[in-house]
């Protein structure tokens, strides 16, 4: 069974160039690709700058994606922002991996299990880990190790389908090569430049996978609308459960 996954730091729906809050640009960009699973970072919930929208529901409802999970990581005077998973497939066993490093911004990874219905009614299990890692190299090293050593991944068989993706802030792909690959993960995207969206120079966003998954293609969106919707470009990858 094939499915399409998108990971995107949506910058609260605020354009990277005009600084205007236009969530419809995020929705239309995602709708164009018709994804089955969406991993979002910097998602607002009840914040005045984004009209106090609960963005996880606003976006999921607009895309007719019935299953969603939100993780509040940074609490503001009013509201919060964090990570979200949207899915066309049933989503359960939502968990959180603590990634906060002392004296740094609070960060966690959002984990969920998707149930994909294959041919003949056969069900496939896919675990998703959505993360927004820190800006400092030492911070990301600690955070990736926490993901890999978490109880969520530790209890899985090495052939269980797992995708770890998000805004990993891994500019030079160093942490990914050094930590994810020895743990059996494969890079789906490599150093595809996604930031800043208007003229991408840095490959901050990544997708890694392992287990019973086959990658067909992966690329960044370069549509004019995507360039204006956020300060990051979305990454799109198509997989097949095997």
Which descriptors would you attach to this protein?
six-stranded mixed β-sheet, single chain, alpha+beta, 6 helices, 242 residues, 12 strands, Deoxyribonuclease I, Chain A
SSE topology:
Blueprint: E1 2-9, H1 23-33, E2 37-45, H2 55-62, E3 67-75, E4 80-87, E5 91-98, E6 108-117, E7 123-132, H3 137-149, H4 151-154, E8 161-167, H5 174-180, E9 186-187, E10 205-210, E11 213-220, H6 224-229, E12 235-241
Parallel strand pairs: 1-2, 7-8
Antiparallel strand pairs: 1-12, 2-4, 3-4, 5-6, 6-7, 8-10, 9-10, 11-12
Helix pairs in contact: 3-5
Instruction: Report strand %.
Output: 35-45%
Report the radius of gyration as a whole number of Å. Answer: 17 Å
Fraction in helix:
10-25%
Kindly report the CATH topology: Deoxyribonuclease I, Chain A
**What's the tally of helices?**
6
* Main sheet record: 6 strands, mixed
Side by side, the strands of the main sheet go: 3-4-2-1-12-11
Q: Please, how many domains?
A: 1
Taking all residues together, what is the mean pLDDT?
A: 95
Contiguous runs where pLDDT drops below 50 for at least 5 residues:
none
Distance between the termini: 8 Å
